[in-house]
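Board notes, transcribed. Complex of a protein with flavin-adenine dinucleotide.
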Amino acid sequence: MPTPRPELSVERRANLRAFNTFGLPAVASTLVRVHSEAQVKQVVDHPEFGPAPKLILGGGSNLVLTRDVAAVVLKVEIMGRRLVAETPEAWIVEAGAGENWHEFVAWTLEQGWPGLENLALIPGRVGAAPVQNIGAYGIELKDRFDTLDGVDLITGRSVTLNAAQCAFGYRDSVFKHALAGKTLITRVRMRLPRPWQGVLGYLDLQRRQHDSGISAPDARTVFDWVCDIRRAKLPDPALIGNAGSFFKNPVVSAEQCRDIIGRDPSVVHYPLPDGTAKLAAGWLIDACGWKGKSVGHAGVHDRQALVLVNRGGAIGAEVLTLARAIQESVYGRFGIRLEPEPVIL
Ligand SMILES: Cc1cc2nc3c(=O)[nH]c(=O)nc-3n(C[C@H](O)[C@H](O)[C@H](O)COP(=O)(O)OP(=O)(O)OC[C@H]3O[C@@H](n4cnc5c(N)ncnc54)[C@H](O)[C@@H]3O)c2cc1C
């Protein structure tokens, strides 16, 4: 006799406010918690859930919910962490998609496998990290990525994808395009190169090196520095709802960058190897006078203009109205169209 499959954990009319770091209200008609690849396949085979559109939910730290959700919400709670292989060139470490990203980073360091320290304290779950190719302090996920496993939500087949197949870009991947909502990531493997070499090019980290007099910090020290810098700069979603950086840093041509510098010499910009330049979206927003301003219950953070916040009781529509007003004023002054970073639903 085949072993009976455990019942799926299903909630009807689930309140999503606690499941998104912006704290925006929305109700999901159906929420299913998936704890294993087998349960994801069970959902695909299910007579009610299988054919229905789906929304995959991790920690909800990169989402702006503007309405109730009719799609079946799959809350990913697949756990587990392990060392897959150790070679003279690298450690390959794996985590289930439901693991907390920061705890995974801290755990790898405790085990003596450094390499993810610059990505410390990024909220969310491991499974969402490849979706937007998370990045911070000079490293992107793709720089340490090995492969990932997922389940095709239409056929129920297991898939394993390498970096090329994930098509990573700046805060971008195939999971935001062709595979959006179609492949649920179940496990992610990271390749941590040996010997470890710190990535310390980022200005804030260079300042720390200078101020501390530590010219060759170890990975644990870099981890602590990154955590300190982030805590000082970014509002904690547990205290004030937000989704981190609300807009991507725009990339402009060399000519457009020269034109903006001509008019605003203090514009914060980073020349890129291909001759284009990345502009600091936070600087552009601040230059338009938005820091600390509000629309209804949604506002621009008082210290970090790139972060939109829930001042208490905000709804998604207010966040969108504020975001559009910011986009228009930045476009009006600089001719640059800012693109939102979070997924807007
Ligand atoms: C204070 C703060 C600081 C932040 N700082 C950074 C930063 O420095 N760098 C950075 O890159 N990001 C940053 N972010 C954004 C966010 O933390 C990351 O994008 C994170 O990876 C989102 O994880 P999550 O589990 O919360 O994803 P969610 O918000 O739940 O989902 C995000 C998207 O991924 C999809 N998804 C989630 N899980 C899966 C899965 N298992 N399979 C397939 N698709 C899935 C969802 O459908 C959705 O489209 C920050 C956010 C906050 C609130």
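Helices lie at 37-45, 101-110, 163-166, 203-212, 219-233, 254-263, 281-287, 316-334. DSSP finds eight helices and 20 strands in the chain.
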